Amino acid sequence: MFTGIIEEIGTVQAIQWGSKSAVLTIIASKILQDVKIGDSINTNGVCLTVTSFGPNGFSVDVMAETMRCTNLEKLKSGSKVNLERALKLSDRLGGHMVSGHIDGTGTISNFLKEDNAVWITIKTKPEITKYILHKGSVALDGISLTVAESNQNFFKVSIIPHTGLETTLLSKQHGDILNIECDQVGKYIEKFLLNRDSKTQQSSINMEFLKDNGFI
Description:
By secondary structure, this protein is an alpha+beta fold. The protein contains five helices and twelve strands. It is 19% helix and 38% strand.
């Protein structure tokens, strides 16, 4: 579990491509202070497991399913990535609860500067925007952000200078793809309601129904 508060911007040093998968080696420093094999590191919003590390970086395996669902396939040597270690129970929760499990991707369609902030418009599918709530939380490339505006086919966030300096977001360009993780609460509520409706429909078949229709 993560918070969406980026600790460090890492640099992709090397990519070893498989037929559908990859091994990423990423240069970093701060997140290596207490790293262990098997630790989870949120990399551009994706929860990845450390398979090896050294004094200047670490490596992770990326499976085919992750490649299909995220923007990691767009990475190349020299690409910058947002990094965050897993949350400690003793830490302050400065962002929101982020799992590192990507729901889908979106495309940057516009940047608009307003005083000290920059508005970013992200186009995506209705399957994603149905979980995007005005003033709710969303994680973009692992960054915890507040939704400033939402519609069926897009949503907007507003970036303060600190977030711009500490993450990769303002180095992006029009047409770049971002990983999106929606707030988990909405997805759990939807699942609960679907299960409840399903059980309600099933409960209409009872002993009286069976007698009336000649089954017993």
